[in-house]
Specification:
The chain has three helices and no strands. Helix 2 runs antiparallel to helix 3. Keywords: Membrane, Transmembrane, Transmembrane helix.
C-alpha cells in the first residue's frame, strides 16, 4: 500500500487561541474589583463596565500582535474582529 500519511506533530500547548492562560482570569478579577469599588463609589462604576468591555478588545490586540508571526490566520481573524468593532463604533456615531 504506501506509506501512511500523518498530520503534523502537535506539541502540548497551554495557551488557548494564542492567549496566555492568565489573561482572561486576570481581566476577570480586575473587573470584579472595579465593579465592587463601583458599588461603594458609584462614580467609579463606569470604570468597571468599561473594563468588562475592554477585556475582549485587549485579548484581540494581544492575539494580533503576538500571534501574527506564529499563526497568520489567527492574527487576521483578530484584525477582522477589531475592524468590525471599529465599524460598529463609527456607524453608532452616525445613528
Amino acid at each position: 500500500m504506501g506509506a501512511r500519511m500523518t498530520g503534523p506533530e502537535r506539541t502540548p500547548d497551554t495557551e488557548l487561541a494564542g492567549l496566555p492562560s492568565w489573561l482572561y482570569p486576570a481581566g476577570f478579577w480586575v473587573a470584579v474589583v472595579l465593579l465592587a469599588v463601583g458599588v461603594l463609589f458609584p462614580d467609579f462604576a463606569v470604570l468597571g463596565v468599561a473594563w468588562v468591555g475592554l477585556v475582549p478588545v485587549l485579548a484581540a490586540l494581544w492575539v494580533l500582535v503576538t500571534g501574527w508571526q506564529r499563526d497568520r490566520r489567527l492574527g487576521m481573524a483578530a484584525a477582522l474582529a477589531l475592524a468590525g468593532l471599529g465599524l460598529v463604533v463609527v456607524v453608532k456615531g452616525f445613528l
